[in-house]
Amino acid sequence: MTADDAPAPPMAAAEPAEAGRAAADHDDSLPLTVIQPPRRWVPIDLGALWRYRELLYFLVWRDVKVRYKQTALGAAWAILQPFFTMVVFSVFFGRLARIPSDGAPYPVFSFTALVPWAFFANGLTQSANSIVANRDLITKVYFPRLAIPSATVLAGLVDFAIAFIVLLAMMAYYGITPTANVVWIVPLLLLALVTSLGVGLWLSAFNVRYRDVRHALPFIVQAWLFVTPIAYPSSLLSEPWRTLYGLNPMAGVVEGFRWALLGTDSAPPAMVMTSAAVAVVILVAGAFYFRSVEARFADVV
Amino acid sequence: MSSDPVAAIHARGIGKRYRVTTTRDLHNTLRDQLSSVARRAFFAVRRPLASRAERGERGDAIWALRDVSFDVAPGETVGIIGSNGAGKSTLLKVISQVTAPTVGRAEVRGRIGSLLEVGAGFHSELSGRENVFLNGAVLGMKRGEIVRKFDEIVDFAGVERFIDTAVKFYSSGMYLRLAFSVAVHLEPDILIVDEVLAVGDHDFQRRCLARMSDLSTDLGRTVLVVSHDMRAIQRLCTRCMLLERGRIAAIGRTEDVVGEYLARGSGFSVADAWVDLTAVRRRGSGEARFVEAHYAQGGDPSGPLVTDGPAEFLVRIDASRPLRVSSLAVSLAPPGSGPLLNLEMAALGRELDLVEGRNVVRVGLEQLHLRPGLYEVGFWLGDAAHRAVDHIEAGFRLEIAEHGSLRGPRVELEVDGVVSGRYSVELLEPGGQDGMEAAKPRREQA
After folding, report:
1. Among A25, B84, B127, B157, which residue is least crowded by beta carbons within 10 Å?
2. Contact across the interface for B211 and A65, Cβ inside 8 Å
3. Domain B9-111+188-264 top-level CATH class
4. B437 touching A (Cβ < 8 Å)
5. CA-based nearest distance B190→chain A, Å
6. Contact B36/A139, CB-based, under 8 Å?
């Protein structure tokens, strides 16, 4: 028996459209791919990322879909995580230690910071592990590797949105009406995203070769939580220390959120600008580092 | 190969070196750190008896590919064959940009779709439908393309009823069929396929092969395919490339290259010649060892073994002391699977007294009921307690050819079975008994 006398499978008869496309494909307009040894200095290829935007979309969609599969509480985790941290903070820092909260009720004060923080911290943790977690994909298929940590961080936006709604409800409960400054939430969220992705790129690339990252990560996140003004206000510092505090990009994000939502006087422009500058440097440097090592991911991961 | 200036793939001097040390002193085990390719490449260099000096010279850098140059014309289907670790998969990875070459340059004209593993990117928690979209995107299909082909893909896989069930509940067959189906509906300009056609049931495999050949013949796509299945290679490919230890050993017409591969590669041995067994992998007490083997068919000693023909194996055994063996066997197994035939002396109720030094044992077989194909020959020697004295799972490979007088349709093991037999088919009279006795069976050989 040969393949020739086998019954023709359903798709054996090519649709005319396909045949036409095949013919059209054979002109010189086909994209040319040049394959050569990796160079040391590789520019960031945003064009490639754009061409693969559909894959990026599907990766984000997959991460969102899969994140709470087979959990009893599902997407409620996006709320519970920052919410219980807020409760603990309110009891210990707000009640017992009587830490000042820039005039806002302490629970709202801390929750406003915890929502962007959770977005940042989860994005960081998951993007740092993303390349290793997707090794099956990386060793088998080509696509711009940047898509993987990027998708992971972007998928966190869904959690952020859910937690943000709870934040709004809490503000309503405490009778806080946001001002027009609330539009600044968008650039501030972008700042958190840039920071999360920037650090995530560094760590994910490191993680490919040094699995130490996995062990260091919880510590990094925990330490970063305490050096960020979440449980306490940055107004405890005086200038110029407060501006320098902005070297921690999350300080700018968190205080910016409080300013935009609660109307506290917590975000001096100098501090936020410092944070933004640092975040951009981390991201750009991270992207270059990532690009320079990504060619070896498939061999090492 | 062709010197077409607008070749679909134009590769020159491609080399890929894997460093083995860079990862050794880190916290991870070597095994964790190296990708499977690096591992295969590593063993490929070491296993085939690389001399100590050769190993030392190579140090910790392994060239999985070396100086590979070739051209593929648009619309051509080119096969890549070679034994495990020859660099086939590495070459596909380089061409599909999964990994970068260490030296050399290749130009690829057209959209590349690579299928190095079935179901790459499948997520077990997602439904079949969701995975089709995800996998399609991973393989480079546009969303509109997937939407347009969705029904066709599901149809081809035959999983309509379960399309909204999470794939973790799929049987492995369903899972593979769906993954395959997405893959074979890829229509990139250049399709790169690694050994993925060898899975699934026979009917499905055949549809995949048909689909693959449609891609190149009807749609004019360029296909680069790696396979160990010489039948699939011969059916699909016009030209072939044989890789050996990272280098191109032969390139040209498929029949020629496949012939060359069978003749020289993978421990293949021809009839009527003594095959050295001293260096093959084995286990056992070693009190006696198989040192050489020889096989031939009855009639024409230099001809290959044929289905339904006789076979004779001679083995030379070196014993370190006089030894009584109660078990001695020669087995035939398709590569990568268990023996189909085990010629075991114990089953005949015989024992052998080996003398110190050289012994020659003959194992004769009246009729070899195995279908044409490549088989691995194994050897076993056991003492009275059935402990292994010497056990060689795969000593060498031999080919069983079709019976010379019968040039029937090509045999497909999955359909026609692996074992042949003598049988007859006849139409009986409605009367039953009378007809059965009266009819003289017309023998047919399959």
Report:
1. B84
2. no
3. alpha beta
4. no
5. 11
6. yes
ipTM: 0.76
Whether the pLDDT of residue B10 is over 50: the answer is yes
| pLDDT single digits (tens) B425-435 | 877 876 555 54
pLDDT band of residue B245 (cuts 50, 70, 90) is confident
Sequence spans of domains, chain A:
43-300
A1 to B33: CB separation less than 8 angstroms, yes or no: no
To the nearest whole Å, the CA of B93 is away from the closest chain A CA by: 8
Residue-wise pLDDT tens digits, B75-98: 899 999 887 678 888 999 999 888
Element (H, E) at B376: strand B373-382
Identify from A2, A152, A300 which residue to disrupt to test chain B contact, counting B C-beta atoms within 10 A and taking the largest count.
A300
Q: What angle do CA A73, A79, A82 make, to 5 degrees?
A: 125
A15-19, A140-144, B283-287 — which is least confidently predicted? Answer: A15-19
Taking the CA of residue A130 and the nearest CA in chain B, the distance in Å comes to 13
Under an 8 A CB cutoff, do A139 and B416 touch?
no
Domains of chain B, residue spans: 9-111+188-264, 275-401
| Alpha carbons B114 and B108: distance in angstroms, whole number | 13
Note whether A139 contacts B152, CB cutoff 8 Å.
Answer: no
Tell the CATH superfamily of the B275-401 domain.
abc- transporter (atp binding component) like domain (2.70.50.60)
Question: Within an 8 Å CB–CB cutoff, is residue B206 touching chain A?
Answer: yes
CA–CA separation, A96 and A155 (whole Å) = 36
CA-nearest residue of chain B to A292? B100
**Cβ separation A301–B6 shorter than 8 A:** no
B378 touches chain A (CB under 8 A): no
As given in the structure block, the two tokens for residue B243 are 């890789």
How confident is residue B29, by pLDDT bands cut at 50, 70 and 90?
A: very low
State the pTM of this model. Answer: 0.68
Token look-up 């205080």 returns A255
On chain B, the residues whose CB falls within 8 A of the CB of A136 are 117, 120-121
Instruction: Look at A58 and B133 and tell me if their CB atoms are within 8 Å.
Output: yes
Interchain contact B237–A (C-beta under 8 A): no
Instruction: Return the exposure string of B312-325: e unless at least 16 CB atoms fall within 10 Å of the residue's CB, then b.
Output: bbbbbbbbeeebeb
Chain A residue whose CA is closest to B125: A66
Here the tokens at position B38 are 């690096």
Q: Answer for the pair B196, B117: CB distance below 8 angstroms, yes or no.
A: yes
